[in-house]
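Board notes (copied after class):
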Amino acid sequence: MADLVEKKKSDELEESLAKLSVKEEENDEDDDEEEEGEEGGVNGEDKKKKKKRNKKKKKKTAKKEGESAVPAPNAGVPEKVPPSRVIGGYTDYYVKYGQTEPPTIPVADLFSNKVYPEGEILPHGLSKDPVPNSFFYRETAEEKRAKERLLNEEVYNKVRLAAEVHRQVRHHAQSFIKPGIKLVDMCEQLEECNRRLVQERGLDAGIGFPTGCSLNYVAAHYTPNPGDNTVLQYGDVMKVDFGTQIDGRIIDCAWTVAFDPQYDPLLEAVKEATDTGIRCAGVDVQMCEIGESIQEVMESHTVTINGKEYPVKCCRNLNGHSIGPYQIHHGKSVPIVKNDDRARMEEGEFYAIETFGSTGRGYVVEDLECSHYMKDFDAPRAPLRLQSSRKLLNHINKTFGTLAFCRRWLERDDGGSYTANGFSGKQENYMAGLRELCTAGIVHPYPPLCDIKG
């Protein structure tokens, strides 16, 4: 029997102190007080006017400082809990920002100062074999950290916007994913919300990759193809995986859905392993160190299913990965088992820390009908025999670039993007062309990854 659970998070590897803007605003207030203290030579009326102006200035500064954190005037109180297990929190947490329930307002419109919420920020992990002095310098040199923030703040802000979109879509999805829902309906509802909240703009902003909803022994890369009417059952273990992107900066995040309490220990094992991987990550940390730590935590757990106890195993041939602009797999892999990969995380890189726990053999193979495809980032120039291949390649370049796509999207009226195609993007009779693009190495197929069926 193989029940698989996945959890992953994108980690910015960001060193963070208090924002520079906060420091500047505090200095502004100090200046106000100094000006008031120098009023001794003027008459009382002028002094009163001066104080009134200073009060207004302070109020405006305070609003600017807390704008992204203070609830909007029309903010609500979160109260809905998810029907699936272990997730925790409220599915409607976003109402505190003035979002509607269900969410309909683009996330960028919720924050008037265009400064978006920060996620959890952790210190760098420590390597057991550090590069001399490098970590100490990064952690203690405030000038270097301040300079890095100034250079990268625009990128970080885009990533935080994409991350907040993902959070709101994810929480909303957790409210409607229940036994009895068709997986195709679930995916389309989630993806429409994603397009709406990110303000889909073709390659400039939109969905990062197709919604994965891999069931039970399937670990990843499954989404319903046209005509697939699979229904979610109470006893299923489903890995939900979707992405958002803004200017090619991809947020890659997943969680596991289960309704039967006997799977709770499995979900907890993977959650704990993922959190361990994130805590270990950091500049100069070796990949093998992260994998060893994840495996130690994951495989310390067991789960009892239908009266039989199973050890929880890491899927040893699945990994996390670095993420580049418009490139979901950027070249570096983050293992989830102990190995000899001495490559190090470097400054400015983005990673998805992914962990997969299994009650099966802990090893996956490609199987079942393929639904995920992606144009190779370094695709060769190859002669194409079929006109349908050339037509489809033009559509892929225009609509997806090097972002992943699925067959469902090709058969939408907009072909995957209303911005790119209007309602004239639907692809007809494309399978022969898609096969030729795959054979030529221009497009890469990503079939479902499966452990043993049980």
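Comment from the instructor: The first helix runs from residue 20 to 37. The CA atoms of residues 102 and 172 lie 7 Å apart.
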